[in-house]
Amino acid sequence: MRDSTAKNLVNFLIGFVVMFVLPFAIFMGIYFNILPQSLLIGIGVFGVLAAAAFIVGGNLFMMYSDIKTGRYKKRS
After folding, report:
1. Total domain count for the chain?
2. What is the reported pTM?
3. Are residues 25 and 3 in the same domain?
4. Which domain range does residue 58 map to?
5. Are 31 and 67 found together in one domain?
6. How far is CA 62 from CA 26, 54, 55, 69, in A?
7. What is the pLDDT of residues 30-51, one digit of tens each?
8. Residues 17 and 3 both lie in one domain
9. Which whole number is the average pLDDT over 53-66?
10. Which three-class secondary structure state does DSSP give residue 70?
11. 46 backbone φψ class: left, alpha, beta (φ>0; ψ -120 to 50)
């Protein structure tokens, strides 16, 4: 029981750091102009590419699921 609790706590802390602490640190670095210019450009390019991949990937997934379920078959 104790190992499971410790593992869950470690997983929670890792998730918390990845989802909240790192983005907050990046935003604060951008806001206070601490980060170098090249890193700011890299973060911006990554954000744009990630958004484009999310949109295109989501559309492709939806089209694939529509075709797979036969949504556009002619029914006569």
Report:
1. 2
2. 0.64
3. yes
4. 36-76
5. no
6. 33, 12, 11, 11
7. 899 998 999 989 999 999 999 9
8. yes
9. 95
10. coil
11. alpha
